[in-house]
Amino acid sequence: MARAPGGVLLLLLWFWFWSWFSGSSLGCLQDPAAAYRLSGAVCRLTHPAAVVLNEKTTRVIEAAFQSARYPRMAGEKAVLFVGKVLYGLDNLEISNLTIGRSDFRLLPGVGIAMEIQNVSAVFRGMLQYGYGSWLVNVGHSVDFEIESQIDLGINPKLYCGGGKVAADTSDCYLNFHKLLLHLQGDKQPNWLKKLFTNFITFTVKLVIKGQICQEINKVANILAEFIQDTAEHFLSDGDISVDIGVTAAPVITENYIESYHKGLTTYNHSSAVISDSVFHPSQLTEDRMLYFWISDEVFNPMVAAAHHDDRFQLNISGGHFLVSCLTGTASPELRVWSSSVPRLNTSGSGTRVWAQASGRIDCGSPDRPALVFQTVPLAVRCSPSSQESILEVELTRLLDKQGANLFDILNPELLPRDGFVLIQMDFGFPHHLLVEFLKKTLQ
User: Fold this and answer.
1) What is the DSSP string of 360-385?
2) Do residues 300 and 349 share a domain?
3) Structural domains in the chain (count)
4) Signal peptide position in this chain (predicted)?
């Protein structure tokens, strides 16, 4: 069984989004419903998103064909009046690759059926052959090319492997509609061309099929590592990181693929625990391309970790915040920090944060007293309208900061609910990111 932690082809591209949510995990539950209460984050990718991602499948197919390395093919055949004919095909390379179209279907409870049709390619190399008997031995070499037209099918099955979304890609097949062998030059005898065409073609089919399917799995693993490295960077900042390993295998319906993740904040080697999540699939719809369901049980440990890591501090210096204090001073400063662990709660009316803050104003001169205030209670509520107004800007800022600024986020919406936040959006595929990966793959 071939394992590709991020999937293959279209599946790999879909896993790009899930891989922001793919960390290590000790195990997965067999029943998705049982995993709901352990899931702090859920990702749903709908059929319209799959259609967009499918447009990029051909680029991955091209990479698989072009980066494949074909072994030397050799064989022999006994021919009447000639004796034993030995042959070998060397230096097989691909050129003139074109791909017609790529189609897919979501198979509920099973996986994804993918068909790549009208793959045309020319394979070139050198044919070495010899024939003879006890009377005479003859050896030759000649350049050759093979015209091919192929349909490629892959039926990856999704499962939970090592706490990550994985795929069994062993169901891979090629249908050859055309496979023509052409020998270079006109001096080769027609009987030889006919002979080689008859018994070499079968060998070539087997080798091409084996290498292409093997290369698809190889590209899958390379992309999985590429995604995982990027995701690891995205989900960590200093001593704060998030383990979002899957809690169960993905669920596939005709309209979407849904994956379930832990969402456990880790700070200084201490990890949060989620055991009573309120997730249910009915809380998500199918109208947008991409959904992220995130529990308050994910946000609160993150906020607590940020507090303990002294992230909630603000220093303001300059002459604009307290004129009466600053008159005649050179270096005034206002410092504000959180003095207790903030607490967050989400409801249909918005998100409310409770915290305590402390502050100190230094007027920049030894003979002027400092003003100190401590444990000032704060309660801040963000309504849905105010959250939505800054969501697109903040998401873009976060992606830029973490080096993932190639996503085109379209019309994001943040919908606060009782105990969780639902983020729904459309997107444009990060084409340049795929190009970067393919360049690394083909090096």
Assistant:
1) EEE-SSTTSPPEEEEEEEEEEEE-HH
2) yes
3) 2
4) 1-27
Structure tokens given for 204? 């070539």
Interior CA angle at 220 toward 219 and 222, to 5°? 65
- To the nearest 10 degrees (0 to 180), the angle between helices 190-234 and 431-442 is 120
**Domain hosting residue 400, numbered range:** 236-431
Amino acid at residue number 293:
W
Q: Is residue 336 domain-shared with residue 370, that is, in the same domain?
A: yes
Residue at 32 is within a domain: no
Q: Residues 93, 221: contact at Cβ < 8 Å?
A: no
Could you tell me the two tokens for 126? 């050198």
**DSSP class of 71:** P
User: Is the same domain home to 65 and 195?
Assistant: yes
- Strand ranges, E, within 80-136: 83-107, 111-132
Which residues face 315 on adjacent strands? 335
220 and 258, same structural domain?
no
pTM: 0.76
**Residues 6 or more apart in contact with residue 104 via CB below 8 angstroms:** 10, 50, 54, 57, 112, 113, 114, 115
Same domain, 210 and 259: no
- Examine residue 241 and state whether it is found in any structural domain, yes or no: yes
Which tokens hold the place of 264? 């456990």
Residue 40 domain flag: no
CA distance 166 to 342: 37
In this structure, are 221 and 73 located in the same domain? yes
Task: Give the tens place of pLDDT for each residue, 408-438.
Answer: 778 888 888 999 999 998 887 666 666 666 6
* Phi, psi at 5, each rounded to 5°: -55, -25
What does the pLDDT look like over 8-66, one tens digit per residue?
Answer: 334 444 444 444 444 444 468 888 888 999 999 999 999 988 887 777 777 777 777 77
